Amino acid sequence: MVSRVIPVDSFDLVIFGGTGDLARRKILPGLFRRFIAGQMPADARIIGAARSDMDDAAYRAMVEAAIAEFGGQESKDTKTLQAFLERLHYVAIDATGKGGWTQLAAMMRDSVIRAFYFSVAPSLFADLAQRLHQHKIADRESRIVVEKPFGRDLDSARALNEGLAAHFDERQIYRIDHYLGKETVQNLMAVRFGNVLFEPLWNNHYVDHIQITVAETVGVGGRGSYYDKSGAMRDMVQNHLMQLLCLIAMEPPALFGADAVRDEKLKVIRALQPVEPENIVRGQYEAGEDGPDYATDAENPRSTTESFVAMQVEIANWRWAGVPFYLRTGKRMKARSSEIAVVFQDLGHSIFKGDKARHRNMLSIRLQPNEGMDLQVTIKEPGPGGMRLIDVPLDMTFADALGPDAEAVPDAYERLIMDVIRGDQTLFMRGDEVEAAWAWTDPIIHDWETRGDVPKPYEPGSAGPEEAAILMHRDGRRWRDIKG
Ligand code: NAD
């Protein structure tokens, strides 16, 4: 199988915050991989823009070091790397001041797509948008890319949207949620809407429940004081888990296009019911053998911020009425694993006498590790001895299915940046989606704050607090094991 690389039009991509952690870790190594794949047109340029004073040569040296640290094997090819580095330029700029803007304006070319990646704190978004406009650096075809966190509540998200909308149309704004760039997430749509098999079963007549898990093994050390102002609900549920929930639950869009898909996702968020306190468990990790407790990591001994949350949510529409969706996410858990599991209902009647086991079909969609899907089906155990039934997975791990080409599958950032250049917003969040997600999240957080809710402690390396298991046990269900 040969992966196809579709060339994009030429571009100038300006990365504000081009010396920062995100740029060095993800954006620039990702662009390098697209360069290797042959997707970057011959005269496309990348312009780093940040506060530090440096010239092109110093910036190239910085990017070379970043690619050596965060790039893969491909960074060893020095000739290709040098060719890529020649595409890089740098301008020292102050988002809130005057410095650098005239110089940046002089660098822009008329004939190519202009894209501006705001890889800086959200408090600078409005300043950047305003200066791009004031210095006539952005035109009506320009695109801007913004990163999470997109607000910390509905009011701040609205303010960010307004700051951008003052100078850019919605069709120019690309809000990144890198979960949407993952191969499996897009495959989820392909599987749902490209096969006749699943869609007829994708409703409350056949689905018992759905689980979404995003588990990390790392703690918050290093960015603890930042994380402490946010917590798992703001940092993960409001954006990543909500996006996954939307894709799994949305109605079929009329076509795979930006507004059609985003309209359907928005309807899901609007159909989400308020969550009662008994349907949410918050947790905070304790000290373990290999690290301190959350409060120490967060440098806040009295912190009541959650590093884990599990919840049962309901979508009030015809398709999903009565089907619980269980979401959980946490730090310092037993494995790094992100998965969606669609658990189908039991057979109404079994013809296999003596078979007492509860066989259930289940489609599990793994985002990491080993991106892929498997469908659990019940078959006869091979060999003699009568009709014994076993459950086996029909496994589709992409790395196996694609063979050596799996390496060439672009990672989420690479794909999303190329979508920006192509002008395809399908995998980006629209402003109204983000606001609707905050409108659902805000009352939950407000309730914790007014009640002074204290998270339950959990052991590092576990599946979260005991209460999270009980959340499912009380309904006669179980979480899937978290496997790395
Ligand atoms: P960082 O602190 O490492 O880098 C910030 C960058 O912004 C630097 O290049 C700095 O020079 C530049 N900058 C700061 N103030 C400026 C100003 N006034 N004018 C011009 N440039 C200025 O931050 P980061 O980790 O790279 O994160 C950038 C954004 O991306 C943040 O909003 C962050 O929340 C978000 N984000 C980061 C990650 C990650 O993995 N690092 C992941 C998701 C989202």
Tally of contiguous helical segments: 15
User: SSE order, as H and E?
Assistant: EHEHHEHEHEHEHEHHHEHEEEEEEHHHEH
CATH class of the largest domain: Alpha Beta
- Helix content range: 25-40%
* Rg result: 24 Å
Question: What would you call the shape?
Answer: globular
Brief overview:
With 484 residues, the chain is α/β, with parallel strands linked by helices. The protein folds into two domains: 11-147, NAD(P)-binding Rossmann-like Domain (Rossmann fold), CATH 3.40.50; 180-473, 2-Layer Sandwich (Dihydrodipicolinate Reductase, domain 2), CATH 3.30.360.10. Helices cover 34% and strands 19% of the residues.
What does the model show?
The chain is an alpha/beta fold. The chain has 2 domains: 11-147, Rossmann fold (3-Layer(aba) Sandwich); 180-473, Dihydrodipicolinate Reductase, domain 2 (2-Layer Sandwich). 41% of the residues are buried. Helix 9 (232-249) packs across helix 14 and helix 10 packs parallel to helix 14. It is built from 15 helices and 15 strands. It has a 9-stranded mixed sheet with strand order 14-13-12-11-7-10-9-8-15, sandwiched between helices. The protein has helices spanning 21-36, 56-70, 78-85, 101-107, 125-134, 154-165, 183-194, 224-227, 232-249, 258-271, 294-297, 398-402, 412-422, 431-451, 466-473; strands at 11-16, 45-50, 88-92, 113-118, 143-146, 173-175, 207-215, 280-285, 308-313, 325-330, 337-344, 362-368, 372-380, 389-397, 456-458. The model has no long low-confidence stretch (mean pLDDT 93). It is globular, with a radius of gyration of 24 Å. The two termini are 28 Å apart. Nicotinamide-adenine-dinucleotide (NAD) is lined by residues 16-23, 25, 50-52, 93-96, 119-122, 124, 147-149.
